[in-house]
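--- STAGE predict ---
source: upstream dedup step, 1 unique chain passed
mode: sequence only
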Amino acid sequence: MHLGARGRLPDVKSQPKRGDSEPKTLARPKDMPEAAAAIWDLLARQLAIANRLQPEDALALEKLCRASALYRTIQEELERSPLIIDLHNKTKTINLHFKALEIVEAQIERGIRHFGLSPAARGALKAANPDAEIEEFDDFLANRPTSESAS
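--- STAGE serialize ---
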């Protein structure tokens, strides 16, 4: 008997078959910001296709999506801001967005590990569904075009 990535049996009933409609996924929280909601829509679908999304994963997925959206926002702010900033007492320090970026990065890393989205685990996702393109999430985070945005 083969156990899933987190030590539980795969939920075979929810595994989509070729030709079936969209896989069953979790409902997105209503108060989620637009950028995080876009990540949720993409990632929840891919995780559902790979049979890696359970109802108890909702909070972890929400945290990952919100952190990913915040990461982008902080990156954009860093691109517009100087590396060294002047404080009110006329001293200089490194831009505080760098520390915020490190904190958000750690949250994203925890989410990646929770859902098995590391490069080593990606092979398992493709094996579960050869048509799934989990790399779309990486493309989405890097602001590269994804197949969904192209259509």
